[in-house]
Amino acid sequence: MSNAFLKGIDVSHFQGKIDWPTVAQQGIAFAYAKASEGGSVTDPLFSANYPAMRAAGIARGAYHFLHADVDAGEQARHFLSVLGPVQAGDLPPMLDVETACGMQCAAIDSAALSWLSEVQQALGCTPLIYSSLSFWNSNLAGSAALCAYPLWIAEYTSAAAPVLPHGVSGYAIWQHAQTGKVDGIAGAVDLDLFNGTAQALAQLGRPAS
């Protein structure tokens, strides 16, 4: 695994209270916190994690866990209300697509695209889409439109790079472990790698208005 990658993590309330200054000292360049899920669920620690990430000097982003059986517009508006005003340097939001919720592929694709489009229009930036290799190939590979969004791929391997899903030519972030250990976090945490330089990561961030 190349040392050229920038290290990051993604968290939710499952990690409990996080000591973000200590996390920053471990060389964590970026972090994403869960903001919302479905049409009404708000992560109970997002309001603590999100400002603390920024205060610790970590490039921050927020993500939403998609329920394909709930109206995508409702989910997008819920996420935006939880996110609140964006600030210079904030990273684009991420849509977590990893469960079918009993829906067929076309419905999952449609829900994901609707959420991505509405959030992109509202924030003026291109969101990322997160999924595992197996889920993408089984449920999302039929939608060429999803390939237009930067991919955050979940694949747990010791290889130097992840295997890409069908129809995808590159990736932005690789979640390479889900049982990582980082000082400042009591339990296990997802470990991520940004596929680019510090300058590229900064360019993803929202410019100063």
UniProtKB/TrEMBL annotation:
SUPFAM superfamilies: (Trans)glycosidases. Pfam families: Glyco_hydro_25. The keyword DNA-binding does not apply. Keywords: Glycosidase, Hydrolase. PANTHER family: LYSOZYME. Belongs to the glycosyl hydrolase 25 family. This is Lysozyme. It comes from Massilia mucilaginosa.
